[in-house]
Amino acid sequence: MNKFRYYFILIITTLSLFSCSKDDNAIEEVPLRDYGEQYAKDNDSIEKYLNNYYIEEITNAPGQPEDQDIKMTKIPVGGTQPSIMSLLNSPTFPKLLVRNVDLDDITYKLYYLVLREGVGEKPCNVDGIFATYKGTLLDNTVFDQSFDPQGLWNLDGTGTRGVFVEGWRQVFPQFRTGTYTESGLGDGTLTYNDFGAGVMFLPSGLAYYGSASGAIPSYTPIVFSFKLYELRRNDFDNDGILSYLEDIDGDGYVTNDDTDGDGKPDFNDPDDDGDGFLTRREITVNGKLTAFDLIPDCSGNTTDPDRNKKYLDPSCH
Ligand SMILES: [Ca+2]
Ligand SMILES: [Ca+2]
Ligand SMILES: [Ca+2]
Ligand SMILES: [Ca+2]
Predict the structure, then answer these.
(1) What is the DSSP pairing of strand 152-154 with strand 128-136?
(2) For residue range 286-306, what is the model confidence (pLDDT) as tens digits?
(3) How much distance in Å is there from the Cα of 3 to the middle of ligand 3?
(4) Whose atoms come closest to the Cα of 265: which ligand?
(5) Please, what is the average pLDDT of the chain?
(6) Ligand nearest to the Cα of 315, by number
(7) Where is this region: Disordered (predicted)?
(8) Which of helix, strand or coil describes residue 312?
(9) Which H helix or E strand runs over 152?
């Protein structure tokens, strides 16, 4: 079960005009809907949107806050505008892509639009990201937005700006940050260019599912357009190895890498190789953490790029 998923208890207060009943106040745990059935409905709604809406405009304004803003509009009756769905796997940008996400015993098709990939680094799925976004329902009603490029969101779910939407963790690792420079105004204003920008179309199972959130009703698919400006590397388990460096298979996601097979992925396991010695202790020499690139294998080798670093080697500590 996904550790970031949370559940809720709906408290139902029954008010009776005939107040003698012992059942006046009952607390009832409402079971969540079947994930597969709900996903089928959500996917229908999302695909209908993708087939019936087109991209009316993508703002091209380098260095301006509105750069890469997108306006998606319903195709009018008789209209010949190409639908968003017609951009599926397009060789040019904007392109619509699909990512398969296995969760809750089903495989979600996660549609996302790439307006621009970005030129910088990719966040892993538990890093911090500096991003702006606009969230809408499938009728284009805006439920939330943030315009601050220096707003930090923690994909690992920690802190006051921890992200609880699984779709964000799935989509952001497919994009890159951009570049920024001082605006020259001397007031600390930054000008951003070439950042990653896109739109994600999330079934409720990859968003808030059975929980209503603000203006989002429960069991509702949602859409986020977003811009990824910068990132911050996290060390979720504080073992001295940044989370993104615990991505052993290099796919950009650290939740599927578990060196000792104990069910706790390396990014969330303080003893990665399960030898009983904490990773942090294995990479500390004379009270100082060894730089990641210089961590030796069991023989002391620090240069072979294919060496098995000692904190991942259970026969060595
Ligand atoms: Ca770590
Ligand atoms: Ca991985
Ligand atoms: Ca483990
Ligand atoms: Ca260890």
Answers:
(1) antiparallel
(2) 999 999 999 999 999 999 999
(3) 15
(4) 3
(5) 92
(6) 4
(7) 253-276
(8) helix
(9) strand 152-154
Neighbours of ion ligand 1 (CB under 5 A): 235, 237, 239, 241
What are the tokens at 268? 């969330």
- Which two structure tokens, joined as six digits, stand for 219? 């069991």
Backbone angles phi, psi at 289, to 5 degrees: -70, 135
Centre of ligand 4 from the C-alpha of residue 287, in Å: 17
Q: Which of 272, 253, 262 lies closest to 155, judged by CA?
A: 253
Token pair, residue 75, equals 């195709």
Instruction: Report the Cα 107 to chain-centroid distance in Å.
Output: 17
CA of 280 to the centre of ligand 1 (A): 9
In the three-class reduction of DSSP (H, G, I as helix; E, B as strand; rest coil), residue 142 is classed as strand
**Cross-strand pairs, 111:** 98, 201
For residues 52 and 17, give the distance between their C-alpha atoms in angstroms, rounded to a whole number.
49
- C-alpha–C-alpha distance, residues 158 and 171, integer Å: 18
The answer to whether 225 touches 216, Cβ cutoff 8 Å, is no
The domains of the chain, with CATH numbers, are 35-232 (3.10.50.40), 259-317 (no CATH)
pLDDT at residue 248 is higher than 50? yes
Encoding tokens for residue 63? 């260095």
Quote the ligand 4 centre to 272 CA distance (angstroms). Answer: 5
DSSP code of residue 246: G
Question: Per residue in 162-171, pLDDT tens?
Answer: 999 999 999 9
